[in-house]
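Researcher: Structure for this, please.
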Amino acid sequence: MPKLLLTIILLVTSNYIFSQNWSIVRLNTNYFFDLDSSQNIQGVLEEFSGFKVDSTYIIGGDTFYIHSKKLSPNPSGFIPCDTLVESSFGVMTIKNSNSTKVININNDTFYFPKLNSHANNWKLIEFPNGQFISAQVFNSDTITFKNNLDSIIRVRLTKRDSSNAMIGSIDDTISILKSTGWFQTLNWTYYLDTSKALHYTRSSFELMRKSEIYDFDVNDEFHISINENNGPIDYLNIKILSKNIQGDSVTYTREIDRESNIYDGSIWPPIRTSYNHYTDTVTYSNINQLIGGLPQAFSSDSTYTHSLHNMTSNQTNRYGYTLSKPDYHYQFENKYCYSSSSTERTFMKGCGSVDYKSDNVNGSPNFTLEQLIYYKKGSQTWGNPHIITNIPINRNSKSQFKVYPNPAKNKIQIELINPTEYARIFDLNGRLLKYIQFPQSPNLSIDISDIDIGLYIIELKLSNGKTLNKKLIINR
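Model: Predicted structure, token format:
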């Protein structure tokens, strides 16, 4: 009786798993894969490869899933570009009530029977000489993928001759998830050439929404360095003053200090610096939109294509990823491709765009690099702040403070008007030298005898969230 009960349970479980609506691919799904192979095929290897099913159409009883195209050429000038990344996973998938077919760029067809029964020993692909690739479901299970429990089937592939005897060295496994399709797959373009057989495992890589990337709070601060054509570096210090969410958009009011530096041969050192202070507003719309992802199908002449790299910065300890958008030109006549310009932007959760590169080699070359060098979010800080020294301090006459003597030798007095939380002293490289918690008294004495002669910045954090700066000169 116990054996019979166990048999019934296994049969019920098996029927449940294989009666679900299995599908190799699904519409509007990004498929990112880690390359699980030491093989090297030009134009295929990337940190993340993949495809997106971005459109379908129906003819008769067949549903055609079109995989969006993504070029992956070697970036060094004109090179043979006879493979498209999506060809590794098939250029399209065709599904009807009885079967699913994967079509690769060479028009090879890989056949899968209806995936709602325990299908065994079907022919994945058959060759003119009678040889074929045999496919057999050998395992069904449940796994956790992207924090969701999902059913999975595993299929073993073997190469066999016309008498069904195993031949050659192909003995591979593919896996399919019930919810989203491919979990482990192969390079279907080169699969029949064992020397080029690439294996891919589905990555748990996730795209972020705008609402996660541009999630700022009042009093958040971001310091950004800007470099144009390898010239002098400009700095932009941003502080969030207000936040307003309306529907599918968020608007921030920002306080901005800017330091601009340009070459000027008439002075020495030959750098002319100007300062500006202003407030502005910025609105991010469609905040539920995913940032990044694989591109839509491209035309025959030119397209922007995407390449994603997952990352968790060791410095910021915040999740993010880099989105590359090279402007690749692809010539179908001779199968050559080249890049004329490219942009690369790194997004970080809660910090927006933290790294931006733009490089254009057409006409007059130009180069732009913007990098986050410091942020403060709540009690969390990262990086070294760039203190902009010549911004007028008396923006609000009620928010002034006095420092004396200045120049100073070994001790200074700070006289306050508004309630203050703390004072910090930085050198001009942004290195923190002192942190002083303020007492309830409106006056504070600070020992600076351990600080060398030079120019420094005193920063005060007021209780209302504002920060004030003054220059301090130490001269003995």
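Researcher: Any notable elements?
Model: The chain has three domains: 20-202, 208-386, 397-474. The first helix runs from residue 2 to 18.
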